[in-house]
Amino acid sequence: MQVIVNTNENINGTLILPLWQDSKNMADGSGAGVHRSLKNQIENILANGDFKAKAGTAMTLAGTEGGKALLVGLGKQEDATLQSMRESGAKVTASRGKIHGRTLTVKFHGVDGSHMGAFIEGMIIRDYSYDKYKSKDEDDDSDDGEITVHVTCEADKTDDLQKSANLSSAVATGVYLARDLGNAPPNDLYPMEFARQAIEFGKEYENVEVKVINYEEAKTLGMGGLVGVGMGSYRKPCMVIMELNGDKPGPSPIIVGKGITFDTGGISLKPPPSMDEMKYDMHGSATTFGVMKALAASGHKERVIGLTCMAENMPSSNAQRPGDVITTYSGKTVEVLNTDAEGRLVLSDGLWYAGTHLNPSYMIDLATLTGACVVALGHEATGLWSNDDELLNKIKVAGEHCGEIAWPMPLFKAFEKEMTDSKIADVRNLGAGRYGGSNTAAAFLKQFVPNMEGTEKQIPWAHMDIAGTAWGAKSNKMVKTGATGIHVRTLHHLITGL
Ligand code: BES
Ligand code: ZN
Ligand code: ZN
Q1: Rounded CA gap, 37 and 64, in Å?
Q2: Which protein residue's CA is at the shortest distance from atom 9 of ligand 1?
């Protein structure tokens, strides 16, 4: 989607008219450039109350002599939030369809700058579909191809709005990438294929360096968590490290992603229903890659690292077993009681490597870690745990700002105790009972956060369980279906402040 902001009065293509709830007429000045018969029709509709402009509604006007229009409800002005504006923008993209074609003109009047920016952002973020595996119908007179959006508003607001739209477009490339990776079928997206795409990304931007720790190297380094999970698959595991602006001094933020390209459960095999959805079990890594892309595309100047732990969790004669004891990269041993609790195993090596080798200011991991998190929060929020209240709060605020809610969850000592009372190893990968499963998983991860050098204090770390938000959230208006690209925007905003 290309967005051009100006003060031009011409209407290109379909007129998109955002309206506050219960508007009885078009805002003063917003009729400029609109053909008289279309204008009359709109004025009639509004005067009669035929379109109430409630939030989340839209009305198509076609077949008038004066061109086509889409009226979009913004809801009540006093209730408007960044998120309600984004959702109204998303509604435009969702209802555009063939009637309205690929050229649109949005006319804003009496909408403040940040709200207009959010509306355009919503239009952009919703403009995504995953068609890579659909055959193209030759006779299709389809409307695909880039959408061009002309935007007009008050003259003194155009420069800021164009800047905001450009930033949204740059960040959106990261959101789209995360969705593409999440949606990719697991036969085509396996650990080393993810690594290959990361290496390509490194070639695209001169300030991005990519390093891949392959299976042989992971074994040599003693990454028992990553190796244990990945060894049962023909597609071997790897760790991918993407560094932006490595020449800038650290310490810097590190994002760590769970990247299980398919989670069968391993020997603790999952039941068949919805097992296909476990292709999304790499969305933590997809978000990590997406954030790096968003940062690179938006010209971020500071050092940031994304590290992804890639593996395919398969049952085979070469797979790890329930009962195995593995030695992780940290040196801590883990009793593997359930091979389906694999995300925490690969992350244990990722967190320890990041904390000891990459000089973090803080570390944030993202993982589709537990079904229990979906039980707790549904699809409405990501679970958020942290050993540092300030970091937790910053993430929560960034999530709220972006309309991607991350909700605080507890790291009680009792959960840590539960996970460290294995009969034969340092840590167990399964809680003692089935309750509090997302909390015990977080408590497990905490065991693999190193201390800050020369101190007894852990590196500030947060864990985000995106099991409920990575896909399947019907209330998420920013995406039609499939992978959501969740938290690319949150983390871009957290890191850049933009
Ligand atoms: N990838 C799953 C978690 C998951 C399940 C995410 C459903 C999204 C939807 C994870 O690897 C897993 O299987 N976790 C187990 C942990 C249990 C064995 C302690 C779970 O949640 O059941
Ligand atoms: Zn699993
Ligand atoms: Zn998993």
Answers
A1: 7
A2: 371
